[in-house]
């Protein structure tokens, strides 16, 4: 089997995309806690803070599918600078305005910008990666997100301090700095999309229904796996400080534990290719989700800090597998003309998980205990492992008849069928000609009649 050629020269485009994603994600990861602190400084209560944080995830739900459809039938690259500008503007204006409704609106603009960037970037990776490179390239692409998630909160914590008016000023400063960090991503967005990848979308007038996309085997599984992994990451980040408070673990130690988890995720994505070669993608996805589910439930156990550190390191490594492989699962299972829309549906599922998972975790923690959400997440990840065990949807499309470079098999009538791309009809056979035996593959002996003329490999008739 011949190796599918790359769409463009080298992989410099992927490195530039990872760098841009790291700055964009770092800005968002810095801005989101800063928005909460600034809202508190402006007099918001816990409910108002939750609403402002929820608008970030809710607003993109209404535009994800239209953006995906637009990307399926056009270029992906314009979404990247648009997303960066929306992130930067949302961060800066959140630090300038002094009313809570305005902060909620600009938080939604920030979420919309992040959605635009991610849809465009994931679609570029899907189009410009050969089938056997998709897992590796998606893994490297998500390193940018992990770097941003690792550095952003630390930078926000270093900038935000004080109470009352001081908290309002420092949180506003953090938002302005995050806007500048997002703008740096623009310096890496050059020659990202190759010319031969621009026309990869389908015909503008043809839209694959959303029901058909979700009905493709493998797409729902990829969406659920992504939701389970992202929900585990979000709940771990939000509720590990609460667990630490109950177990008398210092906040600085909790911060180090979360950083250890993020670093292990980055390490996983750096060695994605060797792991795939060793285990295969189905076994790797299933094993990682199963082990992550067990470890997530294990966080609820009253273990010592060193044991918890080891558990979180292994958990972070396992969680690093789910996101890139779920992207590949969705891309391979979706119809060719709707891959960007399928990725947008995956992001929609992620946003729903970001809204529903914290709310469910809060209800369960209040009713049962702070450790209960981790058990629930463990059950979800085990369920994701079961979906991963079922395998992907449709395999990589096989060459269509007539595209493999070999002549089609003769039919029972002794005449060769017309090659789809040749456009030439076969010459009629003479009645006296002996038919070709289907299993012989050799021409009949000469009988004094004109031989049957058959189209050759290149479409020209041959004797």
Unreliable segments of 5+ consecutive residues: 1-9, 197-203, 395-463
SSE run: HHHHHHHHHHHHHHHHEE
Rg, alpha carbons: 27 Å
Q: What integer is the average pLDDT?
A: 75
Strand elements, count: 2
Strand content: under 5%
Instruction: Give the neighbour order of strands across the main sheet.
Output: 1-2
Q: Approximately how much helix is present in the residues? A: 55-70%
Subunit arrangement of the protein: single chain
Q: What separation lies between the terminal Cα atoms?
A: 30 Å
Structural class: mainly alpha
Number of helices: 16
Which descriptor suits the 3D outline? globular
Question: Describe the biggest sheet?
Answer: 2 strands, antiparallel
Can you offer a commentary on this structure?
66% of the residues lie in helices and 1% in strands. The chain is mainly alpha-helical and 463 residues long. A hairpin with a 5-residue loop joins strand 1 (454-455) and strand 2. Helix 15 (339-367) runs antiparallel to helix 16.
Short précis:
By secondary structure, this protein is mainly alpha-helical.
Task: List descriptors.
single chain; 463 residues; mainly alpha; two-stranded antiparallel ribbon; 2 strands; 66% helix; globular; disordered N terminus; disordered C terminus
Write the layout of secondary structure elements.
Layout: H1 12-41, H2 46-58, H3 64-72, H4 79-96, H5 100-128, H6 134-159, H7 165-184, H8 195-198, H9 210-215, H10 219-246, H11 251-270, H12 272-279, H13 281-298, H14 305-333, H15 339-367, H16 372-389, E1 454-455, E2 461-462
Antiparallel strand pairs: 1-2
Helix pairs in contact: 1-2, 1-4, 1-5, 1-6, 1-7, 2-5, 3-5, 3-15, 4-5, 4-7, 5-15, 6-11, 6-14, 10-11, 10-14, 10-15, 10-16, 11-14, 12-13, 13-14, 13-16, 14-15, 15-16
